Amino acid sequence: MRKIALLAALVILAPVAHAAAEHGLSLYGALKYPPDFKHFDYVNPDAPKGGAVKYAAIGTFDTLNPYTLKGVPAAGVGLIFDTLLAPAADDPTAAYGLVAESVDVAPDHLSVLYTLRPEARFQDGTKIAPEDVIWTFDTLKAKGHPRYRLYYADVLKAEKEGERGVRFTFRSADNHELPEIVGEMPVLSKAYWAKRDFAETTLDPPLGSGPYKIQSVDPGRAITYVRDPNYWAKDLPVNVGRNNFGTIRYDYYRDQTIALEAFKAGQYDIRIENVAKNWAVGYDGPALQAGLIKKEEIPNKVPEGMQAFVFNTRKPIFQDARVRQALGYLFDFEWANKNLFYGAYTRTKSYFSNSDLASSGVPDADELKLFEPLKGEIPDAVFTTPFTLPTTDGTGNIRDNLRAALKLLAAAGWTLKDERLVNAAGQPFTFEFLLVQPEFERVVLPFAQNLKRAGIAMSVRTIDPAQYENRMQNFDFDMSVAAWGESLSPGNEQRDFWGSKAADEPGSFNLAGIKSPAVDRLIENVIHADGRASLLTATHALDRTLLYGYYVIPNWHLTYFRVAHWAKFGEPAHPPPYALDLDAWWVDPARAGNVEAKKSQVQQK
């Protein structure tokens, strides 16, 4: 265990030594961009400003405060808030000064000093002061979404230092991610919120400091942002060539099917597609044939994380890992990929897929050192056997998988009687699959048919987004679809994903309800990794343990972004590898004029 009491004493008694202040932070290795950099390499620094872009959102919204558990926040509302640091989409473990002019990690790694830019301003012209940063930190932990308490659990306090400095003090010296994660924090106005209840929902446009202001709100239906011509940070290197659109509007649609038709009718401009069938045939029509709609597959090196059918292990029916493993045998990915997805997808086999963080093969010597103290707490197979997923020949014949599933279910106390799976008390195996996207029904219903062959009755229920979000936040589901995104530098967020404390925290991302002291210890190994090599070892170990917990039935992933858009935009010549940065796109006046001139002609055909 860490010597927390001793470290706390050191914080109080020892003077803080200072290292040289930097213009940014990198978790591993040097910063890509030097102190005098002019802009990120992938942007067009001469991109024209102006023009309008429209996006689609699904469902509804009822608040403009995205930092609390209450309500459904409006799409894009983060555009109005600035953070201490800004990420670079081509430097994946680094971030560079935005509100902060410099960042200085103490040599003992027990604190970090952020020095604010003297020119930093809120949108009403008032200065961003250390008091605002401190108030934001304290308020997010006390009244913000519960995930902030988990994310900032090892940040003890924030204090003013000098005229423009804020020092964050840490619980221990070996949580190397902490200096950067506090840099991700938005900066909110203490004076503005002093007159308002931060914990309540609001449709009053809050005071921000970012590149856009809220121009208009149609509650639950639409929101429009306008580029702030007086934005204090528009000429900073992290913003040059970005935030180019004059206005950004989000229109809300009931579901993705209606939204797709609206896109083809020219009701909005850019659509990121996540349905293989739509991508294959859904965009066909005169506008696509005329070149007014473009479909682009933009390669990336983004860790894909895990999308999966998630079991709620809080439910008694899913508390036996053998039951969860058995149901995995009854999902026929190969058939779905062939018949539903046009062969587009790769099966996801890791919680850190599409990256070197993913485990494979058997554990190496360094991983075994992490596993050794956990013997008896984690499955024996973790030590010796590569994790594999059940496969089929894609014909729909799952006979072998069905036999394997029934064997596991029998070992867990379930038997097949009169075509129904029942336990020792004669209770049938039934549960509900909760959905928010009707498009997913075509994936889940064949799964239900396979379950039926094992005597399992799974009902499928699709509900509206507001109801769905409320139920998921309160863990009121049996099984659903979930996705956990990962970065190339996983850390403190893993507590929120898989940690025991998060399992009981409404609104956390521990949807599976994992409560495992072994997983908790492995998460801490990830958080306290002291270099890239130890981080890889720690994530491989965590990955294997989660996989062998059978908390999810893994789905699939892509290695490129699917983006459809009306042909009115300019794009970076060399897209960044680690994000789809649409803020670096711009409206090309000539192309926009051509689209508008031809759109009505094409739509009449």
Number of domains: 3
Task: Give unreliable regions as ranges.
Answer: 1-18
- Rounded to the nearest angstrom, the radius of gyration is 25 Å
Lateral strand order in the biggest sheet: 19-18-20-14-21
N-to-C span: 71 Å
Question: What percent of residues adopt helix (DSSP H or I)?
Answer: 25-40%
The name CATH uses for the topology of the largest domain is Dipeptide-binding Protein, domain 3
Structural class based on helices, strands and sheet pairing: alpha+beta
Number of helices: 20
Most strands sheet? 5 strands, mixed
CATH architecture of the largest domain, by name, is: Roll
The strand count comes to 25
Average residue-wise pLDDT: 93
Which geometry do the CA atoms define? Answer: globular
Beta-strand content bin: 15-25%
Structure description:
The protein is an alpha+beta fold. It folds into three domains: 4-193, D-Maltodextrin-Binding Protein, domain 2; 258-300 and 562-605, no CATH class; 306-557, Dipeptide-binding Protein, Domain 3 (Dipeptide-binding Protein, domain 3, Roll). It is 29% helix and 20% strand. The chain contains 20 helices and 25 strands. The strands form eight sheets. A five-stranded mixed β-sheet has the order 19-18-20-14-21. Helix 11 (365-371) packs across helix 19 and helix 18 (517-527) packs antiparallel against helix 19. The model is unreliable at 1-18 (pLDDT under 50).
